[in-house]
Design goal:
The protein is of the alpha+beta class. It is built from nine helices and 13 strands. The chain has three domains: about 70 residues, Arc Repressor Mutant, subunit A (Orthogonal Bundle), CATH 1.10.10.10; about 110 residues, Phosphorylase Kinase, domain 1 (2-Layer Sandwich), CATH 3.30.200.20; about 100 residues, Transferase(Phosphotransferase), domain 1 (Orthogonal Bundle), CATH 1.10.510. Helix 6 packs across helix 7, helix 7 runs antiparallel to helix 8 and helix 7 crosses helix 9. The structure holds adenosine-5'-diphosphate and magnesium ion.
């Protein structure tokens, strides 16, 4: 059983269809208003103003929406509201039955352990906005990043990016968590029963060397077959399963395509970080230039 730290299951047990509908209506109008005027919500949901007001109170109590009062009354979706919507659909579609403890908080996401209908652990990652380098994506250059709507949209885009690239990498045989589902900004993926590379204690040099080889091999497959560069590779985005010493590369939303003008420098940085870590921590030495050549297939 998972230990519960985020009360989305409790919240969902207290929400009925009307509440979910109101949340969806507010979500849908967030592009037009920072706070959606109550009249607009009313005209979309078409039920009595007392039912609507009851629903809005409940959503406010759970902090799924925020309210603006002043020249007009309006409601905006919070990240917790977006989490609730995404989680509601993931749950109704049978990908997850329960959300458990938080296993990771980064600046860009919150990661929870969850339980699948089979009883197996899974991971649910809620994205929280952009990802390093999101400005690279031309489509989104025009976004004003101050508005809540833009953050919500950016988080959804980030979720979609991570899910899609994980699918491509997984299919081709890269060791990444198996992607299971995605809704809005939430990505459900395989739970890796391992620890972050930076937490691994001292290692036999030959084991460390094999782990490094397998990481380089995965960077190479990603580069050659999926034509992507991770872009944020470090000992914090690699997980090690200690029983087998398998290394998984996680946290992909900021990836860049090989033909992106920044791909070359991102690849170099990824390689430099990893090689520096293996040298400092395990005494394994590799040359940056020849490693990059191996990745690019310039020699094997
Ligand atoms: N699939 C997974 N299985 C197990 N633990 C995970 C998984 N994905 C992430 N984690 C844990 O959560 C932490 C944060 O996840 P990550 O994807 O790196 O997000 P971010 O760094 O953007 O917050 C990781 O360092 C790792 O400890
Ligand atoms: Mg990370």
């Amino acid at each position: 059983m998972v230990r519960i730290t985020y009360n989305l299951d409790f919240i969902l047990s207290r929400l009925d269809n009307i509440d979910i509908l109101v949340l969806r209506v507010i979500e849908g109008l967030m592009g037009k208003f920072e706070f959606v005027p109550i009249e607009f919500i009313e005209s979309r949901v078409r039920f009595s103003s007392s039912s609507l007001s009851k629903a809005l109170h409940k959503l406010l109590d759970f902090r799924l929406v925020s309210r603006r009062v002043g020249d007009y009354t309006g409601y905006g979706l919070t990240f917790k509201g977006l989490d609730t919507l995404a989680y509601h659909y993931l749950k109704s579609n049978g990908y997850v039955t329960m959300l458990g403890e938080k296993i990771g908080v980064g600046k860009e996401g919150e990661v929870f352990l969850g339980e699948a209908p089979s009883g197996e652990f899974i991971v649910v990652k809620f994205h929280r906005g952009g990802f390093s380098g999101f400005r690279r994506i031309r489509r989104f250059r025009s976004y004003s990043i101050d508005a809540q709507h833009s953050w919500l949209e950016l988080a959804k885009l980030t979720g979609e990016r991570e899910f899609r690239v994980l699918s491509d990498l997984y299919k081709i045989g890269c060791r990444v968590p198996k992607p299971i589902a995605w809704n809005r900004h939430a990505v459900v993926q395989e739970y890796i029963d391992g620890i972050d590379l930076y937490k691994v204690g001292s290692l036999d040099a030959s084991i460390a060397s094999k782990i490094l080889d397998s990481i380089i091999e995965d960077i190479k497959i990603a580069y050659q077959k999926v034509r992507v560069v991770h872009g944020d590779l470090s000992e914090y985005n690699i997980m090690i399963v200690e029983s087998s010493w398998d290394a998984y590369i996680i946290d992909w939303p900021q990836y860049a395509y090989r033909d992106d003008e920044l791909a070359e420098s991102l690849l170099r940085r990824d390689v430099e970080y990893i090689l520096r870590f293996f040298k400092k921590k395990f005494g394994v030495r590799r040359d940056v230039e020849s490693t990059i050549r191996i990745i690019k297939g310039e020699y094997s």
